[in-house]
Design a protein that fits this description.
Distance between the termini: 36 Å
Radius of gyration: 16 Å
Order of helices and strands: EEHEHHEEHH
Largest sheet: 3 strands, antiparallel
Number of strands: 5
Shape: globular
Number of helices: 5
Helix content: 40-55%
Strand order of the largest sheet: 2-1-3
Length: 150
């Protein structure tokens, strides 16, 4: 069986649990547990901490099967929310958060609104009815991305 690199959560269910902190990181394990106990957690997925280990132990390459698992997890989030990542009319926006096995304050900030671009921001403006909100969200995404990723 292939290694499981991605764990889904949301809609009152999760593939992970709180005791899987070493595998899912603190945030991933806690999100999974909150979903399991019925708290209103938006659907999402966690990439395991083992992906980071694999990356550094294998010439900075991602493990086989990761891309497919991420695509499947994203498709599940899309179906649960009725939105599509990259869609110009009804864009799905996601947040990316780091989550190590042990808390590491200041290591990496969150990137919000991943999925906004010059086309999807127009869809967000139409759906929200608030053009200023949409472009402010886009501005914040660009600033966060530049600060955290670049």
């Amino acid at each position: 069986m292939a290694t499981k690199w991605v764990y889904n959560f949301g809609e009152g269910d999760a593939e992970g649990r709180a005791e899987m902190k070493n595998l899912l990181g603190g945030k991933g394990a806690n999100l999974a547990q909150m979903a399991v106990i019925g708290l209103p957690v938006p659907p999402g997925f966690t990439v395991t901490t083992e992906v980071c280990t694999h990356y550094y132990e294998n010439a900075q390459s991602y493990p086989e099967g990761l891309r497919e698992q991420v695509h499947q997890a994203l498709a599940l989030v899309e179906s649960r929310l009725g939105q599509k990542f990259g869609d110009k009319e009804n864009p799905l926006l996601v947040s990316v958060r780091s989550g190590a096995r042990a808390s590491m304050p200041g290591m990496m900030d969150t990137v919000l609104n991943l999925g906004l671009n010059d086309q999807t921001v127009e869809g967000l403006a139409r759906r929200s009815g608030d053009r200023r909100f949409a472009f402010d969200s886009y501005r914040r995404f660009v600033q966060m991305y530049a600060d955290v990723v670049l």
